[in-house]
Design brief:
56% helix
Length: 96
């Protein structure tokens, strides 16, 4: 009975085997952003990537980049708190 795995462990292992763990991580971050922040905020940013703790977000203008740069640490704290882990250490904003 010691070798029994939880469904979560099995799913996590399968996702890793399929190379989908990064996609799931990005989905969790997108979900966190839409859950934590208001609609005006969350609908104007797009999650592009997460590499080595650096989250890249696409935003509509340089004004958004400037505003969000001031809020970067708060955004990181809220996302990591929601996800209960240290996923994001820095945010890079990109104008699209």
């Amino acid at each position: 009975m010691d070798n029994i795995k939880s469904v979560s462990d099995i799913v996590d292992s399968a996702l890793c085997d399929l190379g989908l763990e990064k996609a799931v991580e990005l989905w969790k971050i997108r979900n966190a952003i839409f859950t934590i922040f208001d609609k005006g905020f969350s609908e104007n940013i797009r999650v592009i990537s997460l590499r080595d703790g650096v989250l890249t977000l696409a935003v509509p203008s340089s004004v958004w980049i400037q505003e969000l740069s001031f809020m970067e640490q708060d955004i990181i704290i809220k996302i990591n708190g929601f996800l209960k882990g240290k996923f994001v250490s820095r945010i890079k904003f990109k104008e699209v």
